[in-house]
Here is the input.
Amino acid sequence: MDEKNYDKVQEESDPKVKRLYWNIAFGLQDVDGLKPSKYMK
Here is the structure.
């Protein structure tokens, strides 16, 4: 079996981009009828 090489992902430091990523994640959860907790928000 071949070894897979993965690139290390750098954490995004821009708050606007982080907010966008969280909003996308919440939207994907909403598609499945799931809601984030108050603590998460």
